[in-house]
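On clarity, I found the account of how folds are encoded harder to follow than it need be. What matters is that the chain and its backbone geometry are given together, residue for residue. The format is easy to grasp once an entry is in front of the reader. For illustration, here is how one protein appears when written out as sequence plus structure tokens.
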Amino acid sequence: MTARLRATATAAATATTALLLASTLTGCATKDERCGPAPSSRYDAADFLGDWSGEGAITLKDQGGKLGRTFMVHDWPKDTTTIPSSDARPSSGFIGNGGWTVSPDRTTLTLTFDRLDAALERSTIHTLQVGEEKNQPVLYARVGDPKTCHVFALKREGD
């Protein structure tokens, strides 16, 4: 009887492993899988200064004084609901600027745009998660259909 239970447990474990492997290979994240870089909270505002690029581009500065932390974006997505599920870059983005802040727990970077029209204000990316790949910070947002696990990611130039 013990051998039969052991064989049944082994078969169940093999089936579970095969199912997990198959779901991993589809490219879609399940509720238990991570979609995007590993989250990080070890970076502070000084670590984000500079030029970042990927599917868009952003320059983060700290002007000090009344100006504080400022940014400028290029090729920034206008509408995150229409970003394709592949790694294709959005066909046309916009140029904008404003101020930025890092959350107290250092897990998100928030952009406050200057002078956006109401439609763009609702549809563009304002919040980037802080992640890490290969011991380097990554700024990212999950966009589009959640089933496709499309990640808008930016890496600091030179990293």
Notes: Residues 2-25 form the longest helix (24 residues). Residues 5-29 have pLDDT under 50 and may be disordered. The helical segments are 2-25, 118-123. The radius of gyration is 20 Å.
